[in-house]
Amino acid sequence: MSPQLNAPGSVQLTIQTYGSTDGIPKHIELFNQSLKRLQSQWISGNEWQLSGIDPGTYVLRLSLTSGVQTEEVVDVQTGDTTAVRMDLAGISPYETQEWAYMAKSNTGSRLRYMKELVPGPTPTPSLMACTYRILQFSNGFWIPSEVPGGTLQIDSHGETFEVTLGERMYVLELSGEQIPTLYVGLPPHSRLKCLVKPTTGPQGAVHPLDIAVSTDNWASEALIALLTAGAMEEAATLTNAEKAERLLFEKNEDPAAAAVGGYFLLKMGELGRMHNWANNLANRFPYLPDGAVIHAWQLLQEKQNTIQHIKTISDRLVEALRRGIPVYTEGFRLLYRGLKMVSSHYGGQNLLVNTALDIASRYAAVLDWSQETTTLITDALQTHDRIIPVLARGGTGNNQDSFPTNMEAIAAG
Amino acid sequence: MALVFENNAPGPKTHVLLIGVGGYPYLKDGTQAREQNGSLAQLGQLTSPPRSVEALYQKFIEIHKDNGWITPLGSIELLLSPAPGAPEVLPGLAKTPATRPNIQAAYDAWKGRCDESEENVALFFYCGHGLSKERQFLLAEDFGFNPKNPWDGAFDFSTTREAFHGCKAQTQLFFVDACRQVPPEMLLFRMTISALDPASYLGSDCTYDLTIFAAASNESAYGKPNEPSYFTKALLNGLNGQAASNHDDEWVISTGYLGNFNPLLELVDPAQAYPQRSVTVMGKPRAIIRLSGPPVVRLVVECVPADALGAAALSYTHLDTGVTQSRQPPNQKPWNIDLEAGIYEVQAQFAQPPYLSSKKKKSAVPPSSTAKLQCL
What we know:
The structure holds two protein chains of two kinds. By secondary structure, chain A is an alpha+beta fold.
């Protein structure tokens, strides 16, 4: 038999998108004819090639963190390159929205891409007018920030806008006539993309608008999308503990991404990789609640040392609310749960913890737990001044490490 | 006695607690209906929960008989409250009503078994009415017994779930399928509803956590009358293969794919696939079921242009086994097929112009695939 007869071939994949989607992770998998997965790789570009494949029939699948999946049967020939083209241009109505339909978990991309599954045409809502403002958290109060807001006319496809933020705790406030007010946590970053579109949920049962918010750190955005969707197997292929550790380590560049890395490590139980970085994240970025929550939970998960760390855990959880509200829903979930646990530990006798828990409980009652970033449907956000130390509330110092925990001191403020 | 299955062989086990509440005697249209206050007066009977529990019970036994549980099935506690007049489910099986005290007793027994080993698997399923404020509350059969304080017949699921992390079993699977509305009165008052387990103090989470909480806004969004709920159908489809993967020459169902639940709901009913419909909380993933062969997955066949569907004779043939099936015209809807995962030749044929016959190789992989045949 000629040695060339069974020479391996290769597969070359080209992904067609509306515009440039460089950086947005795409998951490529190669399966054999028995559908056993042979290769799994995440790419950020639109081209992929694999060589050294034995001739035969394979399945090539492309998956996005928004839930879109498509696959092709590929016949690999001896010594030849099989070209495959997958067209994703149709998943988004506009090029300016492509990032959301590729990377975010709440845009209904999968249904849009496989729209043949939807029975009948989707009713087109009339234009919805709404207004947005960017609020910042300052000493226990939510106040309008220097970041300009705007007005939006939301048609069936929605509207996008960008905001440039400083290093503070911000939320997006969205309101309109007959539109319940919505607040969305914003990752601290220099520039954010936002997409506001009609909800894919049933009218009257959910808020009429879906909001997708994204930084430019696509690795982190993909990870939080997968964690929110419950796609932990995919998350574990996108990021292993080592990469998540790196996200946490590189916190100086992107604290929001560091927080996402921290949440992943907590979920996977990889406490050993967190070292002291969660503590450093919490200290280095005093405006970011998520760092404080992650550090508290790192200590909570270290079963044998929990009691000796109880004061630090308690302090960190209260500190998180002093900074605002966690940017990510996962962070709020951990904050709320942690406060309940600590309150029980103190037998309900720690006034500061109880006050923080009361604030968190009120938020929990209006939270949309399905979203990536903390999303609240409520007329107005609460003030947190009940837990802000007297000194930090506008006194001469800003020493937030010393604060009263007893009734008399709080009453004196 | 809610224990309907027991396997006392040594070693780690999967222990199951199934609760299906369809009949609420003290609510609207119940056998002993009492006038409830405010929007609680709107809560009535449900026909899906008993069917859901029946379907899951049968599925779990089937997996056991196929030796499919990676951690063998150890026990099933089953509580069932059928709606009045509904067809009987699980005939011949002793059914314990899902009252609050019975749920408590079954929960305690179930947790006790789960607590015997870190390698045990705990599986909890609830189907019935639920309400939520800052926490989720599930309603037992005797909810509304005292209209002045109906909450004695409910339990705090959120606190119960949190407390259960203290159980030794490191794999904990919780599936809650609640039909709910939030009554306005709940928003005004601080609710005091007891949990099945006291609130846990300090403690870490279990290693392999999968908690899926699904809530339908009303009964029509919950399920079709006298059928398993949409959520249960999605869960069953996931266990049958839509959440399957083959990484090591073995098809398994992993929590890491099962937890991505909205795509599974979408395949049952696309209208159910919006983000708020189900929320998943997950820890590290692990495989829980081993399949004896390729899984059952969904293949959707359609034509481009869509108008060609009405005239198309569609067929598929498995490339390896030769298994084939066809669908004759006229049928304007895409062809939704549940079939064994694999590679197929899919074909559309037409008796006359303008459409052109077309065929292509198409893979059917979990959870679903779509074959679009170009017919012009």
